[in-house]
Amino acid sequence: MIRLSPQLRTAIQRTTVPVLILLSAVVIVLGKADRMIFDSLRAATADSVAPTLEALAGPLAAVGDAVGSVRGFIGTYAENHRLVQENQRLLAWQQTALNLAAENRKLRGLVKAVPERAVSYVTARVIANSGGAYVRTVMIDAGINQHLARGQAAITGEGLVGRLTQVAARASQVLLITDLNSRIPVVIDSSHTNAVLAGDNSERPRLIYLSNADAVKVGDRVVTSGIGGVFPPGLPVGIVSAIDAGGPRVEPFVELSQLGYVMIVDYGLSAGLPQPIPFTARRARRGAHRAAADVAAP
Amino acid sequence: MALKVFDTPALPRVNGGIARLLPIATTALAALISILPLKIPGYAALTPAFTLMAAYHWTIYRPDLLPPLALFALGVAEDLVVGAPVGVTALLLLLVYSVVLSYRRYFVNRTFPFVWSGFTILTMSAMLGLWAVYSMLDLTLLSIRNTIFRGVLTIAIFPVASFLLGRTQRAMMGAG
Questions:
Q1: Engineering a disulfide at A187: which of A132, A225, A231, A273 sits with its beta carbon 3.0 to 4.6 angstroms away?
Q2: Are B90 and A10 within 8 A, CB to CB?
Q3: What CATH class is the domain A10-74+116-273?
Q4: How many distinct structural domains can be found in chain B?
Q5: Domain range enclosing B124
Q6: Which residues of B touch A49 (CB under 8 A)?
Q7: Residue B6 in domain
Q8: 3-state SS assignment for residue B34
Q9: C-alpha A127, offset from chain centre
Q10: In a domain, B72, yes or no
């Protein structure tokens, strides 16, 4: 280590904190100006902390399961009663579904509909949660190694969870539908009203840009509309739970605070999402635009 | 000596290499704990600011072993991992560090309620600051409800964190 004079050391110590505070502010502004600037750094960090988080997620889940099984044991009788009734109801529905599926196949054949795309699933464990009031993301332990790509939908058996915003080699980040930055084109099942599901960091996202606001009622089912080509149509999202001054609010089908595993679905649609443009390429392109403008305006 | 910067009684020297890393290690652990996916309804939004507690504790008791560069790196790493705007947590931790350091002489060797009230004021200001920064970055007036609850929860849990940190500190560094 280099020997420094005491005066110089003191001077360095006195200036470190202000310099770092300034640096943080500069980093915030840079990140705001260019969202993609820290992308590779984010990916590298995600990859390096993923093993630790994975190691912790196992025992943590075990504790959660233990608590859950005790709770389940206490409620077994009531739960069993409820399930018997539900099973009777569902058996009737199963018949209806089978009939409809058969009829649907026949009709698809008649109108020569384009067959639906093959779908592939990757199941991943949730290994981190964004603590704090301003960001709603989770980290999962799968990434490029499992052929995940930015924009793919994350779902559970109940419905839509969010979409992949950041994919590193062995970990990825899912932007939940409740995040302030999440916007999902949806349709209200019963009235075919198109809308955009906009997160606002609360538990229940809002519906905005409704094509027919009066047709929305509490209890309506909300599914993805497939408009925009990022998500396939028909993924269950939630139920309209209230209509307040800010518009209808949707209660997601998925209990987002209880996520243990999510499925990442590749519908072959993620190409619909514009890929981030690297900073340098963007500068070059801007330069090209300017050059073109110079040529156009003699 | 680094300690001459602070006009408080000199801190006992810690020779053990591992003990010297304790402040950084526990602050990193606090950052890690705050992103663990606990399946408690509504917990994610109200996760107590564990990193803030560790930073406060060590700035009061062992600022010599908590280099600002480590706080900066931890803050940046946390933002990168959770997908938050990079730099916000680093800025918060460094501001806390510099504010606490300048009032440090009023906090050392004082009773716990006094230290706790200092933390209360600090946490509430930090939460309001965070709310202001995020509102500016998102260009909307965000709901402040969760921010306040999170602050209250952080303050409520601080005694436990402080007890654990103090115990570890005494066990590994001796009285200090």
A1: A225
A2: no
A3: mainly beta
A4: 1
A5: 17-173
A6: 32, 77, 81
A7: no
A8: coil
A9: 15
A10: yes
Alpha-carbon span A134 to A180, nearest angstrom: 8
Q: How far apart are CA A46 and CA B78, in angstroms?
A: 10
State the CATH number of the domain containing residue B157. 1.10.1760
Q: Which residues contact A187 (CB under 8 A, 6 or more apart)?
A: A193, A194, A195, A222, A223, A224, A225, A233
Residue entry with tokens 């916007």 = A183
DSSP letter at B176 equals: -
**How many degrees, rounded to 5, is the angle at CA B9 between CA B4 and CA B15?**
75
Dihedral sign for Cα atoms in the order A229, A192, A198, B147: negative
Where are the domains positioned within chain A?
Answer: 10-74+116-273, 83-113
Per-residue tens of pLDDT for chain A, all 298 residues: 566 777 887 888 778 888 999 999 998 888 888 777 888 888 888 888 888 888 888 787 787 777 777 877 888 888 889 999 999 999 999 999 999 999 988 888 888 777 666 677 889 999 988 877 788 999 999 999 988 888 888 998 889 999 998 899 999 999 999 998 899 999 998 888 899 999 988 889 999 888 887 888 888 999 998 887 778 888 899 999 988 887 899 999 998 888 888 999 887 665 555 555 555 555 555 555 555 445 444 3
Q: Are strands A160-167 and A206-208 parallel, antiparallel or unpaired?
A: unpaired
User: CA of A98 to nearest chain B CA: how many angstroms apart?
Assistant: 36
Task: State the nearest Cα–Cα gap between A52 and chain B, in angstroms.
Answer: 9
CB atoms within 10 A of CB A89: 9
A257, B39: Cβ pair inside 8 Å? yes
- What ipTM did this prediction achieve? 0.81
Supply B42's token pair.
């509504």
Q: Do B87 and A27 touch (CB under 8 A)?
A: yes
Q: Identity (one letter) of the amino acid at A118?
A: A
